[in-house]
Design a protein that fits this description.
This protein has seven helices and six strands, in the order H-H-H-H-E-E-E-E-H-E-E-H-H. The chain is an alpha+beta fold and 252 residues long. It is globular, with a radius of gyration of 38 Å.
């Protein structure tokens, strides 16, 4: 009988269902600890569990559409795109000038280099002065501090804006008469845009060469071809913007 009781105890410690087992337990009841099942605590989740990492965007792109050049391609594209956007802004300012409208945007390309500034490219004109339009024909620049006047004046000259010649009015003010654009002036504006366009093309080509060298891609490989297509696409964007300006200015 003791063997039967031991066998029943080994079977998962559950309530017996057979008649014989119930009879045996009735005559020789088992200790309560044997009949009770022990609950096991579930493992608590850590309060500081790290969140699951988001899959890389590339994982959702079909294999046939993935960029073989990877990160090198994306960085090159970002640099080329920025170059084209800068060129668009420069052309927009020139186009405004060619139309005869006088706006503060004409001085958008100006960058002021201050002795105390750590930025070698200079700061925007709006950071050191206010710019306004007087009588619809004159730009008026008023510096916040007198000692920056000469730096602002030099910056306007260095921007090489066609037809714009700054004139000091007092210790804090510069006036810039904006003449009506003649046919020759429009051609000069377009010539300026051509120079900016070539600068943008040079930057794009240089970025292409740097990316190919950095990735170690050989000619005619898939990675090389991807970067070449990127180069061609953004150079075409520059050409398109320049062509639109040529049309609006009537340049030949």
């Amino acid at each position: 009988m003791s063997l039967l009781k031991a066998a029943i105890a080994r079977v998962g410690r559950v309530q017996p269902t057979s008649a014989l087992a119930r009879q045996v337990l009735h005559l020789h009841p088992l200790p309560l600890a044997v009949l009770q099942t022990r609950p096991y605590a579930s493992k608590k989740k850590s309060k500081h569990a790290e969140p699951a990492e988001d899959p890389h965007p590339e994982a959702f792109v079909p294999a046939s559409q993935r960029i073989a050049a990877g990160e090198v391609y994306h960085k090159a594209e970002e640099s080329m795109k920025s170059s084209v956007e800068r060129f668009r802004k420069e052309v927009s300012s020139l186009e405004t000038r060619a139309s005869g409208r006088v706006t503060t945007g004409l001085l958008a390309p100006v960058r002021v280099k201050l002795p105390t500034s750590s930025d070698s490219k200079g700061v925007r004109l709006e950071e050191v002065a206010t710019v306004g339009v007087r009588d619809g024909t004159t730009l008026v620049v008023t510096v916040f501090e007198e000692h920056t006047l000469k730096h602002v004046e030099n910056a306007i000259y260095e921007a090489k804006l066609p037809g714009l010649n700054p004139q000091r009015a007092d210790s804090r003010t510069i006036k810039i008469p904006v003449p009506k654009p003649t046919v020759e002036a429009r051609y000069a504006l377009y010539s300026t845009a051509q120079r900016h366009a070539e600068d943008s093309r040079t930057h794009i080509r240089k970025q292409h060469s740097m990316s190919v060298k950095k990735g170690g891609f050989k000619k005619f490989t898939q990675e090389f071809n991807e970067l070449q297509e990127l180069n061609d696409r953004y150079i075409k964007e520059v050409d398109k913007v320049l062509a639109e300006l040529k049309k609006s200015t009537g340049a030949r």
